[in-house]
Write a structure and sequence with these properties.
Elements lengths: L1 H56 L4 H16 L5 H24 L1 H5 L1 H36 L3 H7 L13 H4 L7
Helix pairs in contact: 1-2, 1-3, 1-5, 2-3
Length: 183
Amino acid sequence: MYIILAIIVLAALYAVFTYNGLVRARQVAEEAWSGIDVQLKRRADLIPNLIETVKGYASHERQTLEEVVELRNKAQAVPAGDVAGRGVAEGLLGQALGRVIALAEAYPDLKANTNFLELQRSLEGIEGEIQMSRRYYNGAARDLNVKVESFPSNLIAGQFGFAKRAFFEITNEADRAVPTVKF
């Protein structure tokens, strides 16, 4: 009788510890996604100032500037839980922002503009923060996914509705390609 009771108590304790571990992993993943979201919001808030500064110097580059604004709006319209969709939208936005920064090469006055330089530095800093946040989120998502898929914790995860998290990834193959270096 005591052996059966001990087995039941151990099974209950295991279930409680596993459930709490899953809750902790889910909360870490949600916190990590919040960090990405904050950095993406900072970048989105910076874009209008950058566009206005560039407009004054490169008015005939209107198509590039409008594309950035359109992609920013699309990225902000992606539903909060759609990590993969947000990754695609933010990747496209990042590419377009790169083209805006590249415009500075064609406009020496813009390249020397203090406001533009400050915005560019801010954007570079935010991009670095986005990369760090992305790595942290993907690590948290990986940890949660391992717990959700591993036996026997997957039994508890299935019972209580824990689900895998999508990774926040680069979806453009050109961004993943190894650069060609020629001398």
